[in-house]
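> forwarded from #structure-qc
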C-alpha cells in the first residue's frame, strides 16, 4: 500500500479540523470563520439551495417552523418551571401560587409555557391542514405525513399531561373527565386507564405518572420524531407552489429558480421567529394562565369539562354510545388520516392550494354543509330524536351506536357520490371536499362543547354559560 492514495491533508491541524467539521480549515479572518461554522450548522437542517417559490410566506405560512419554535420555547420555559415545581398534591398548587408572588418573572414564565403549549396544538393542526390542502403529503412524503400525525398526538398528549400539574380544580376535573374516555375501550379500557392514572381515580400517583410523561417521556419522543420529520423535509425538499394554471408560482415558466439558503431562507426564518417570539411574549405579559381553587376531589364542578381540545370528543359522547363517541369514531378518524397519503392523487394538483378551481368551490360547499348541518343535527338529537326511547327493545350500543353511525356513514357516502356527480369532479377533489366537511364538523363540535354547553352539559347560549 502506498501513501499516495491517501487523500488526507498532510497538516495534522487541518486533518483534525476536517475530522470534526467535515470541511476545510476555515480562513483566518473572523468573518470567514464564522460564516463557515454557521454554514455547516445551518446546512445540517437545510439543503444549501432551496427553490425560490417555496420562500413565499403564503405557501407554508411558516407553520412548521412556528411549531418548532414553540417546541423550543416550551423546552426552555419548562426547564425553568421544573426549578420551582414539585409533583406532589401537598406542594403543587402552592408552587403555582409561589410562582405568582415569590419567584422573579415566575408568572411570566408560566404564562409563556401555558400559551405556547395551547398554541402548539392549534399550529400543528393548521400545519396539517396546510400540508393537506397543498397536496404536500404525496410521494415521497407519505411517511412524513404519518410522522406528522404521530407528532400531533404527542403534542396533545404533552398538553393533557401538563394540564394536571397545577393541581387546581380545572386540572383535576379535566383530567378526571379526559382519562375516563379511555375506560370505554372494550375489555382493556379500565385497565389502561388505571395504569395511566395509577389507580381507580386521579390521585398523587397520577401526578407522579403525568409528571414523568410530561417532562421526560413525551419530550424525548417529540425530539426524536421531530428530528426525523425535519430530516425528511430536508431530504424530500418542500413541494413547489403552483398556480391554478399549473405554472410555478411567481414564475412565467416551468423552470424553478434556486437561491442559496444563506441568507435567503435563514434571514426570513430569523425574522419570523423574532416576530412570533415578540407576539407570544406580549400576549403572555397581558394574559395570565388560568388558575382556579386548589383541587378538591369531593367537589365536582358543574359542568365538568375536558380540556378544550377534547371537547369535540366530549360533545360526541353526548350523542353516541360511549364506545362509539370515545373510541370507534376517533379511531376511524385517525385511521382515515393515516391512509390519506396512500390514496390516488392527481399529481398536477401538487403545490396548488385546494387542488384546482373546482376543488376550491367544492371545499366551500363542504365547509358550508358542515357549518349548517352539524348544529342542525345537534339540535335534532338534543330536542327531537330519542333513538333509545323509540327502540327500547334494542341494547343501547345498537340504538345509540351502530344505528346513528350507519346513518351518518350513509349520509357521508351520499355526499361524496352526489358531489362527484354534480361537479363532475375527480376523486381527489371530492375527497378533499369530504375532508373539509369532516374537519369543519369537528371544529363546530368543539366550539359547541366549549361555548354552548352549560350546567349538566345542557345546550345554552355562550353568555348564559359564562
Ligand atoms: C410538532 C409538530 C411539527 C413540527 C415541528 C413540524 C415541522 C415541519 C417543518 C419545519 C416543515 C417544513 C416547513 C413547513 O412546511 O412549514 C414541515 C413540513 C411538513 N410537515 Fe410538519 N411539523 C409538525 C407536525 C406535522 C403534522 C401534524 C403533519 C401532518 C400530519 C406534518 C406533515 C408535514 C409534511 C408532509 C411536510 C412536507 C410538506 C411539503 O413538502 O409541502 N407535520 N414540518
Amino acid at each position: 500500500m502506498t501513501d499516495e492514495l491517501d487523500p488526507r491533508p498532510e497538516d495534522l491541524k487541518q486533518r483534525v479540523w476536517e475530522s470534526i467539521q467535515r470541511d476545510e480549515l476555515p480562513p483566518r479572518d473572523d468573518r470567514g470563520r464564522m460564516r463557515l461554522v454557521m454554514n455547516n450548522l445551518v446546512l445540517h437542517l437545510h439543503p444549501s439551495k432551496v427553490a425560490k417559490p417555496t420562500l413565499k410566506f403564503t405557501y407554508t405560512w411558516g407553520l412548521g417552523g412556528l411549531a418548532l419554535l414553540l417546541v423550543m420555547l416550551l423546552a426552555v420555559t419548562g426547564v425553568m418551571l421544573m426549578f420551582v415545581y414539585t409533583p406532589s398534591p401537598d406542594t403543587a398548587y402552592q408552587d403555582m401560587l409561589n410562582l405568582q408572588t415569590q419567584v422573579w418573572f415566575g408568572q411570566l414564565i408560566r404564562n409563556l409555557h401555558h400559551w405556547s403549549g395551547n398554541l402548539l396544538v392549534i399550529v400543528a393542526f393548521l400545519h396539517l391542514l396546510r400540508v393537506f390542502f397543498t397536496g404536500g403529503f404525496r410521494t415521497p412524503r407519505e411517511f412524513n405525513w404519518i410522522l406528522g400525525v404521530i407528532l400531533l398526538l404527542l403534542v396533545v398528549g404533552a398538553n393533557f399531561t401538563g394540564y394536571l400539574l397545577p393541581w387546581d380544580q380545572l386540572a383535576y376535573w379535566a383530567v378526571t373527565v379526559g382519562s375516563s374516555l379511555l375506560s370505554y375501550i372494550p375489555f382493556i379500557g379500565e385497565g389502561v386507564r388505571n395504569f395511566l392514572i395509577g389507580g381507580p381515580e386521579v390521585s398523587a400517583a397520577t401526578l407522579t405518572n403525568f409528571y414523568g410523561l410530561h417532562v421526560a417521556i413525551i419530550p424525548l419522543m417529540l425530539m426524536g420524531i421531530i428530528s426525523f420529520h425535519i430530516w425528511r423535509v430536508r431530504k424530500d425538499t418542500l413541494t413547489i407552489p403552483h398556480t391554478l394554471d399549473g405554472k410555478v408560482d411567481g414564475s412565467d415558466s416551468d423552470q424553478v429558480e434556486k437561491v442559496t439558503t444563506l441568507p435567503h431562507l435563514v434571514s426570513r426564518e430569523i425574522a419570523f421567529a423574532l416576530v412570533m417570539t415578540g407576539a407570544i411574549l406580549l400576549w403572555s405579559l397581558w394574559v395570565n394562565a388560568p388558575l382556579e381553587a386548589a383541587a378538591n376531589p369531593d367537589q365536582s364542578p358543574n359542568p365538568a369539562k375536558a380540556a378544550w381540545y377534547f371537547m369535540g370528543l366530549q360533545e360526541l359522547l353526548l350523542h353516541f354510545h360511549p364506545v362509539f363517541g370515545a373510541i370507534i369514531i376517533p379511531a376511524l378518524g385517525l385511521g382515515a388520516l393515516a391512509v390519506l397519503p396512500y390514496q390516488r392523487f392527481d399529481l398536477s394538483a401538487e403545490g396548488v392550494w385546494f387542488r384546482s378551481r373546482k376543488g376550491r368551490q367544492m371545499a366551500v360547499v363542504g365547509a358550508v354543509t358542515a357549518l349548517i348541518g352539524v348544529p342542525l343535527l345537534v339540535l335534532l338529537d338534543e330536542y327531537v330524536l330519542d333513538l333509545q326511547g323509540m327502540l327500547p327493545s334494542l341494547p343501547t350500543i345498537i340504538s345509540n351506536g351502530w344505528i346513528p353511525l350507519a346513518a351518518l356513514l350513509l349520509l357521508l357516502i351520499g355526499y361524496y357520490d352526489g358531489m362527484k356527480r354534480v361537479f363532475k369532479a375527480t376523486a381527489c377533489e371530492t375527497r378533499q371536499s369530504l375532508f373539509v366537511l369532516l374537519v369543519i364538523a369537528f371544529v363546530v363540535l368543539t366550539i359547541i362543547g366549549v361555548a354552548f354547553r352549560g350546567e349538566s352539559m345542557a345546550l345554552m347560549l355562550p353568555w348564559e354559560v359564562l
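QC bot note: The pocket of protoporphyrin IX containing FE is lined by residues 60, 63-65, 67-68, 71, 124, 127-128, 131, 134, 136-137, 141, 144-145, 148-149, 151-152, 155, 226, 229-230, 233, 238-239 (CB under 6 Å). The beta strands are 49-51, 258-260.
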